[in-house]
Amino acid sequence: MKNNTSKVFFLIFLLLCFIVPTTCMKLEKVMLVSTGDVTSIAINTAEASGEIIDIGDGATQRGHCYAKNPNVNMDGPKTELGAPTGPGGFTSKVINLEAGTKYYIKAYISNGTETIYGKEISFSTVSASLPTLTTNAITTITSTTASSGGNITSDGGVAITASGICWSTTSNPVATGSHTTDGAVSGVFTSIISGLTANTTYFLRAYATNSVGTAYGNELSFITLPISTGTVTDIDGNVYNIVTIGTQAWMKENLKTTKYNDGTAIPNITDNNAWATLSTPSYCWYNNDATFYNTTYGALYNWFTVDAASNGGKNVCPTGWHLPSDNEWTILTSYLGGADVAGDKLKETGTTHWLTSNMGVTNETNFTALPGGSRDLPGGTFNYFGYLGYWWSSTEDLTNQAFNMSMYASYNGVYRVKEYKGFGLSIRCIKDN
């Protein structure tokens, strides 16, 4: 019976083709398209498939149209894949979608005059989430500053609009309070925290914000260093402020004593030629001008002045203090993030005493290094005042040389160098442990 029915329909079709020939032509040239599955659905994108069954008299465009409301058409968002060459499947990349949103979509084929659509289906994009991140360890703690940062491991599927560190004197700090804005959107970032109060406990954590909200890393805490309020007095009665940096206590000013701490006088050598031939302790004032240089810049000493073998075991620093070793200088610069950046944290700001550009200098340690210049060999001449500062260490390198630390105008770092022991350089004393 089924076969007979099919034959009847076929005979009717042939009769129509004979009576109205255009009927068969129209049936062969109708554009037809079907909508396939939507796959690879993400937060903002998806992939939609379709199949062209017939291109009719010649289609000029194909793709998918989509919207957040049903009954989508060509008036709204759509993909345009160009003219098909014949029947077959195709895929559209649908972009710029909203997270966690239901969309309606259907395939289309068009010849410029007429558009044929496939079945309309729906899908929902993946919902966005908060970012994921951790808080970096806290480093370089001073009385008013600290360094930390974060590591953003996921943006939650949507763009991060703000990131940094937030802190407070109470637990669970939030980004609407005290915070940095570092602008990182992924990976590791570093934050410098400033304006803190000395000897105070703080809590901090990294944060990152996207359109979903703000996420936080793990909470850490730290205590800022106390402000150094003490002083120390040398044998001449000169008073020096004390500054604590990490675990070390330093004089805030250059040494200016004319005697060892047992009262023994240190020879003051003013003649250049005499200075150049010395192998015994001596000091001087830059340009032999004690009136101008004493108060602010301190004295210049040759290395024999601080060498126990040359000075008879005497100490030029006040009792309880000593000339720092090369290793103690390194401990200081390492604590400040390394020699390459420590200079900016140790030098006095501005150009009152540093005579050239001092960009980037913070003096956040309150060490207040000044460019006292030097007295050089050969010749015993004075040089580099206002541009360079040199400070002896107690560490020898060779028989005729010893290490010192130097800082230059317009340079960020602290430089470990060695000079002949007869050079005249500044001294900063460090407190005994």
What does this protein look like?
There is one protein chain. This protein is of the alpha+beta class. It has three domains: 17-124, Immunoglobulins (Immunoglobulin-like), CATH 2.60.40; 132-223, Immunoglobulin-like (Sandwich), CATH 2.60.40; 231-431, no CATH class. The chain is 14% helix and 33% strand. The protein contains seven helices and 27 strands. Strand 5 and strand 6 (115-117) form a beta hairpin. Helix 1 (2-19) packs across helix 2 and helix 6 (326-335) crosses helix 7 (339-346). The longest helix is centred in the first third of the chain and has 18 residues, at 2-19.
Q: Counting H and I runs of at least 4 residues, what is the number of helices?
A: 7
Number of strands: 27
- Our estimate of the beta-strand percent is 25-35%
Domain count, please report it.
Answer: 3
Q: From the structure provided, what is the oligomeric state, counting identical versus distinct chains? A: single chain
Compute the CA-based radius of gyration. Answer: 40 Å
- Content-based structural category: alpha+beta
Low-confidence stretches: 1-10, 22-28
Mean pLDDT across every amino acid position: 91
The description of the largest β-sheet is: 5 strands, antiparallel
Head-to-tail CA distance between termini: 110 Å
Helical percent range? 10-25%
Q: Which overall shape is indicated by the principal axes computed on the Cα atoms?
A: elongated
